[in-house]
Each structure stands twice: as structure tokens, then as C-alpha cells.
Amino acid sequence: LPPAMSLQKETLINQFSLRISQLQRLELPGILSPLGISVWGPPEEWGAAQAPGVRIRGLADFHRDLPRLINASDINLSLSKCHALGAVPPRVFEILACGGFLLTTDADSLSRHLEDGQDLVVFRSREELLEKARYYLDHPEERRVIASNGMRKVREHHGFLQRARAIAGVLSRDGRLEAL
Question: Are residues 57 and 45 in contact, defined by beta-carbon separation less than 8 angstroms?
Fold first, then answer.
């Protein structure tokens, strides 16, 4: 294919993947609605997720409100986007760094950084999401231990300083650091 066609195809695939991820996110509140949940985010985005037991709370300020909301939540969710399944979403590290309990979809590289059942909890299906959410709501001490482990691991191994050192190490190894 000509480069322009290849770029068009890549752009279409990316847009399609983003839309699929959006639709998957919108279905989660309905799955969890029997538990009574709050969703934070733009009402125009989350309005389609309205269901009995789902409360759309609106926008939260990332710096002022997010840490408080994460800590006030019994369970925090993070979803890998289907166009980036290999990547660990930044929200995983944000939630864990705040000391929040995290229930998340699996990502290919997640197990290289964090341990399922020790630092966070992974779900792989809609049924497993509801089952694990119910379980951990009924077991607050287990939730607390897992959240504490996740916070400790992220703060020790995945902070900004550790990331900057890792990036500098790669750049130095590749001879690119000297060029800067």
C-alpha cells in the first residue's frame, strides 16, 4: 500500500479502537449497578451509562479532587483501552500511588510491574468484574492490605524519579543521552 493509504488505514483502526473502548467503558456502570456506584467524569460522556443504582457525579479536578475521591472509594476501576492492550494505563499508577484499591482489566505488561491479588486485582470478564467487586466489598480488610501493598510498590518502584532514571538509562545505553 502507498504510505498515505497505510496512514489512513492506521488512523481508521485507531479511531475504531477508541470507539470500542468508549462503548466498553459505558457498559461497566450497568454491570455494577446492583452494587450502587458513582461515576466521575463528564456527564455528556457518561450520560449513556445511566441505570438504576448508577450515579453520574460530574467532573472532578485531577489535582484537588482525584486523590480524595480515590481514597474515599471502596473500589476504583481502571480499564485498558483495546488499542493499547499491552500498555499499563497511567490511571493504574495514579490510583495505587494514592492508596486506592484497584480492580482493573489485564494488560500484557501489567504482571511485569504489579502482582494480581497482592498489589491490585485483575478481572477478565463482565461476570468476574461483578463477582470480584462483590467479594472485595464484603472483605474490607483484604481490600486494605492489597491497596497498601500496591501503594508501597508504586511509591518504591514506579515514581517519577524511578521513571526518569529508567529513561536516562535507556538513552545512555543507546548513546542518545550525550546528544541531548
Answer: no
